[in-house]
Structure formats: structure tokens, C-alpha cells
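WARN retry 2 of 3 for item q-0093 after timeout on previous attempt; input resubmitted unchanged.
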Amino acid sequence: MPNGRNLLGHYSSTQSALIVPFPHHPQQYYLFAIDAIPQHSASPFDLTYSVVNMSLDGGLGDVETSIKNISLMPSAAEKLTAVPHANGQDLWVISHGADNDEFYVFLLSEAGVSGPDTYRTGIDYGGVDRGVAGYLKASPNGKKLANALWSDTAVVELFDFDAATGTISNANTLSLAPLNLDLYSEGRNVYGISFSPDNTKLYVSGYSITQFDLSLPTTQEIVDSQEEVTAYEPFSYSLVKSLQLGPDGRLYNNASANSFYVINGIAMFYWR
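OK item q-0093 returned
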């Protein structure tokens, strides 16, 4: 697109870009972008948005010149996700501060972006090395948020989310069990995260992939349910990437530069 160059974001950022439809504007899309942590990027470390209008450039689309790289908040973590509003029309866009315990929830409606509402809950990133990296994902039904912290804490955060109000509450920490290996703690770092299509399982990827059973009634039972569903491969950066739920209802994880894992149904794991 003629005006599509120099959009912010960064190739090293965990969730660098998010594109969502502009409610009630059928040919327009919001493109949210988030920068990488300062050690990887010299750009402003913030969350921005631009608007893509597909009616421009003779129907080929272009970025609106007056709505490009608009800053929403400075000092954002590499976390960015969207959840459909309970009204079936609007969207919630969610991020987190880079050095605090604050989630930021923006409302995207017919009028544009508003907010954020701020929720102080969960782990304070100011005391967690590299906690700013790692995925933030919502469950398919919009009732839960899960947050992976790429740090030596070896934990995943699980929250309740209210899609009618945008409220984040009920923080729970799911600690990954030690592997009893003679390796330093980085081997338990987590990065990718995704829910199963039926919302009952949570998958976390680091140097292996771990499954948690969310259908159990207590946090401790969920923690105790964890199961390694791939072999542990220490220091293999090919296994430290994302988990993504596909439109076919299966979960995908890149296993190397030219191959990937597929979770084909609940707890059924195949190599492709």
C-alpha cells in the first residue's frame, strides 16, 4: 500500500501486530502495533494504532495518512490481544504495562478507540526479568485470559474476563513443575500459549509443550493436572515460539524452520 511503509512494531516483539475490523465501518480495519523490549529496538517502546481503509487507492486499500502510528500508551509489554464484546459488535483490545502490574483494556466501537480502563492484578513486571515477553491470549468463549511470562519464574497467569464490561479479575498463578534435570532454570521459561477450542485445556510452549486441564474446580488441581505433551528439548530456540489455534480447530506450534507440531483434538499430538 502506498502509505503502508514505516508502520511501528518490531519483528522481535511477541505480539507485534493485531488487525481487527472497525465496527460498523465495513471497509476499514484497525492495525494495532507494539514495539519490542528496548534491548531489541531503538524505537519508542509503546502501543500504537493505524487505520487501513480498503476503499482507498481504487479499492486496493491504503493506510489513512491522518490515522497512522497514533500512540495509545507508552512503555507497553509485548502483549496484545482482542476479545469480542458481549454485544456482538464491539471489541476489547488488551495490553499490559512493561514495568508494572497493570492491564490496559481499550474499547473499539463505532466511534473508534476509547479508554483504557486499568486493572492492577497479577504479577508486577517491574520485578520480573523478561516478563514483558510471552503471549497473552483469550479463551474462545471470551471468559478467560492466559498470560505466559518469558522469565525464570516458570509460571503462567490465568484470569477471568468479563466480555460485557472488560473487567479482568481473579488472578491465579499456574507454576510449571520442575523437570529434575541438571539444567539452569531457563529451561522452564514459557512463551507461547493457547486455549483448546472447547476452552477446557490450556497449552503452554517453551522448550516443551505443557497441557493444563482447566475443567478442574480448583487452581491447585489445575496445576497438578499439568502434563508434558512433547519431549523436552533444552536450549532449542526452534521450540520457543508461538502456539496458534487455527480455523480448523487444531493447535499449531513451529518445531523447526521447516516443520511444525499439530495438536489434533484434545491431548492428541502429531508430528508433521
